[in-house]
Amino acid sequence: MTGPTLEARRANMVEYQIRARGIKDARVLEAMGRVPRHVFVPPGYADSAYDDRPLPIGSGQTISQPYMVAVMTEALKPRDADRVLEIGTGSGYQTAVLAELVSQVVTIERVGELAAAASETIGALGYANVEFVVGDGTKGYPSRAPYDGILVTAGAPDVPDVLLEQLTEGGRLVIPVGNTLQQTLTRVTKRGRDFRTERLEGCVFVPLIGEYGWSENGEQAS
């Protein structure tokens, strides 16, 4: 495929899969219009990179459908000066979208091979505001806390308290919560000692594996 064809597909993705389905945040729309999704998928899937569906990226993981990336990003309410923690780097596509919108992204991935590939892609695109960590994302990353936003790209059985503890005042946590087959996208906002919980829409993500998520055999880990 040629460059203009890919650019045209990306523009159509933003217009018809994202804007037309209710995403209104202009900054989110513009960011997704800039990030080349096709470089984040395996070569055999390049033709499908701008389709409205998730795609496999190896290690039992997927790159989320473009619409869901937009929904989660808009729900996070990203601001220019924010420091954001992403849990579940995966392909790095969501990471790049966040890097377009905030000051600093810390992204954590439990599969080292995925983290290395995402780091290489992100670096090649010139993003200098992303820090990569390999580890158990269900614990967050306290050494860089607090965060203005935390975005979790895998389904959790519930909201880990350890993540709420790493939010700034007014910070937002966006996380899919449910069982291993389907979840509800949930936003939790810190207000003093209280947390406001909003349930946004149904979704389906791979399980969040780790101490405060699911075990490898599909049981709730804690």
How would you summarize the topology of this molecule?
Layout: H1 3-18, H2 26-34, E1 55-58, E2 61-63, H3 66-76, E3 83-87, H4 93-99, E4 104-109, H5 112-124, E5 130-134, E6 147-152, H6 161-164, E7 167-178, E8 183-191, E9 194-203
Task: Provide a brief overview of the structure.
The chain is of the alpha/beta class and 222 residues long.
Structure, described:
- This protein is α/β, with parallel strands linked by helices.
- Helices cover 27% and strands 27% of the residues.
- Helix 4 links the parallel strand 3 and strand 4.
- Helix 1 (3-18) runs antiparallel to helix 2.
- The longest helix is centred in the first third of the chain and has 16 residues, at 3-18.
- The model has no long low-confidence stretch (mean pLDDT 94).
Helix content: 25-40%
Low-confidence stretches: none
Largest sheet: 7 strands, mixed
| DSSP, total strands | 9
How do the strands of the widest beta sheet line up side by side?
5-4-3-6-7-8-9
The share of residues in extended strands comes to 25-35%
Q: Look at the helices and sheets and give the structural class.
A: alpha/beta
| Gross geometry | globular
Query: Distance between termini?
Result: 47 Å
Average pLDDT metric: 94
